[in-house]
Design goal:
Elements (H helix, E strand, L loop, with lengths): L1 E6 L2 E6 L3 H4 L1 H64 L5 E5 L7 E7 L5 E7 L9 E3 L4 E3 L4 E6 L9 E8 L6 E8 L1
Antiparallel strand pairs: 1-2, 3-4, 4-8, 5-7, 5-9, 6-8, 9-10
C-alpha cells in the first residue's frame, strides 16, 4: 500500500512502511552482533587451545631444562672427582704397620692399583734373602684391595728403616711395574 503525501503543490506517492521493513536495520545489527559474538567465541576457544599447548610445551621445556641441569651437575661432580684424583700422588700399594716398632713388626701391603694383578714380588735392595725383612712365598696373585704381608725383624742391631719394592704384572698381563716405599 502506498500513501499519499502532499508537499506544497506536489503530491508524492510513497510506499507504505510495514513493521517488517522498519525492523530491517535493527535485524541487520542483531545479525552483525551475533556474527561478531561467534567470531569472538571462536577466537577465545583458539586462544585457550594455544594457551594449553604453550603450557604443555613450557612444562616439557622445564622438565628438559631440569634434566639438563642435573646432567651438568653430574658432569661437574665427575670432573671434580677426576681433578681430586689427579691432584693426589699415585700410591698403587699402601703399606701399613700392624705392630709397634720396638718388636718384630708385621706389615701389610694393600693393592690400591684398582685392578687384579699377578706375579707380585716384594724385594729389598739385597733381594729375597734380606736379613731384616722376611717375606712370604712369592710371587703371588693379588686381587684389587687384596693384601700381602711381610715381617720387619727388629733387633738391637737392625736398621731403623728399609726400602721395600713391590714388583707386579698389571691386569693386562704384559706390563711389569714397581713401587718402592721406605718402612720404618
Amino acid at each position: 500500500m502506498a500513501r499519499m503525501v502532499q508537499s506544497g503543490q506536489r503530491t508524492l506517492w510513497l510506499p507504505a512502511t510495514t513493521p517488517a521493513v522498519a525492523d530491517r536495520p535493527q535485524r541487520a545489527m542483531e545479525w552483525m552482533a551475533a556474527a561478531i559474538a561467534l567470531l569472538a567465541a571462536a577466537a577465545a576457544i583458539w586462544q585457550a587451545a594455544e594457551a594449553r599447548r604453550a603450557n604443555r610445551s613450557a612444562g616439557s621445556h622445564e622438565i628438559a631444562a631440569a634434566a639438563a641441569q642435573e646432567r651438568v651437575a653430574a658432569a661437574l661432580e665427575w670432573q671434580a672427582q677426576i681433578a681430586e684424583r689427579a691432584a693426589r700422588p699415585i700410591v698403587p700399594w699402601v703399606f701399613e704397620a700392624l705392630g709397634p716398632p720396638n718388636m718384630d713388626q708385621l706389615w701389610s701391603v694393600t693393592n690400591a692399583t684398582g685392578e687384579d694383578v699377578t706375579a707380585v714380588d716384594l724385594f729389598t735392595p739385597e733381594g729375597y734373602y734380606e736379613k731384616w725383612i722376611k717375606f712370604q712365598k712369592f710371587p703371588v696373585d693379588v686381587d684389587s684391595g687384596g693384601v700381602v704381608e711381610f715381617m720387619f725383624i727388629r733387633r738391637l742391631g737392625s736398621p731403623p728403616s728399609r726400602m721395600v719394592t713391590v714388583h707386579w704384572t698389571a691386569g693386562d698381563g704384559h706390563t711389569r711395574r714397581r713401587f718402592s716405599h721406605r718402612v720404618a
